[in-house]
Specification:
Length: about 220
């Protein structure tokens, strides 16, 4: 049998291309043809409905008096003039703070003003707290240093790696203790100098403590 003649799938150039037009039901559909534009009705704006509602409903006199300026609406001036004088500014309650300025720039009697009556006493208290904490930290460093030296000089001695870490910590603690002693010595000297400049007033417990600190630091 002779082979059948194959039909070419490629259309000849003489055949005109057929354009396909899709029927559009929804304007949001995507056009598949390049030469066809997806046209649809324009979206309605909601603002037009609001404008129509405002135009259809007449505005009340109360609305005009509140929302319009007195220069535009004469009813607004009448409403403002009829306000009582008691509501000229806000008066806070007994347990409230007033944050509104008065027209006459006079402080309201109900305002509560906070004054720092014990500012110097609070500063002295903070200084004492800081000093106590520094003393506690210095004492902790000294105790830690004694423990490390006991471990290093113990029998049997620690291994090389552990001993290296211990010596690094000992060096850090010694520098910290030395810096604390130098600062305390300078502070004690400054306090003694201030007392001499003030005229040598009666010595108190702080003076005796400074003298003892000076003797201890000089001995070390």
């Amino acid at each position: 049998m002779a082979p059948r003649k194959r039909i070419s799938r490629i259309a000849s150039r003489s055949v005109a291309t057929v354009e396909q037009f899709t029927k559009r039901i929804n304007c949001r559909s995507v056009g598949t043809q390049t030469d066809i534009l997806a046209k649809g009705p324009a979206k309605r704006k909601k603002v037009e409905n609001k404008v129509k509602l405002l135009d259809s409903q007449p505005l009340s006199s109360q609305y005009l008096a509140i929302h319009l300026m007195p220069a535009i609406n004469p009813l607004a001036t009448e409403t403002i003039n009829r306000r009582p004088d008691t509501f000229s500014y806000f008066l806070p309650g007994p347990n409230e703070k007033s944050c509104q300025a008065v027209a006459d720039r006079i402080a309201d009697a109900s305002d509560r003003v906070i004054t720092a009556s014990s500012g110097e006493r609070q500063i002295n208290h903070l200084k004492s707290v800081v000093s106590n904490r520094r003393e506690e930290a210095n004492q902790w460093d000294r105790n830690r240093l004694e423990i490390l030296l006991a471990q290093i000089n113990g029998d049997p001695p620690p291994r090389w790696n552990s001993a290296t870490q211990l010596w690094l910590e000992v060096d850090m603690l010694e520098k910290r203790i030395e810096a604390y002693d130098q600062e305390e010595l300078q502070n004690a000297k400054n306090r003694n100098l201030d007392r001499k400049l003030d005229g040598g007033q009666d010595k108190g417990p702080s003076d005796e403590k400074d003298q003892q600190t000076l003797k201890t630091l000089k001995a070390t």
